[in-house]
Amino acid sequence: MNITLLTVGKLKEKYLKNGINEFLKRLQPYAKVEVIEVPDEKAPEQLSESEMQQVKEKEGERLLSKISSDTYVIALVIEGKMLTSEQLAKQLDQLATYGKSKIAFVIGGSLGLSDDVMKRADMSLSFSKMTFPHQMMKLILLEQVYRAFRINRGEPYHK
User: Residue 48: left (phi > 0), alpha (psi -120 to 50), or beta?
Assistant: First the structure.
């Protein structure tokens, strides 16, 4: 299975980089995992609604340019479907079973994902009704993907 973590913005925090690198290393026996970061759109703190839309569209174009047509896209958004770790494991297992070997998890920038990215998504996933920094979501997502592989293989993992 080929998994891509596609995100807006560069990760700067060393502690998050260390955690992400740890889970990328742990995932090596299970899948080929790649992290692709596209630049975020520079914008002032205060934006009008139309300016926010433009920022999301530009970031969305960058994201979509990295997604091939045969990729199953899972968008991480607050409004998405909430799953337990076991349900996520089952979802990934079913995708592999039905020949969906390329999966991209997409995390937007601080303003979220564009409408075009959401239209391209095959599934919307939410980890919580709370808002998390998108940099931190990279680490949380990789941990859950690792947990899913452990669950699917019947391997022990802390609860």
Answer: beta
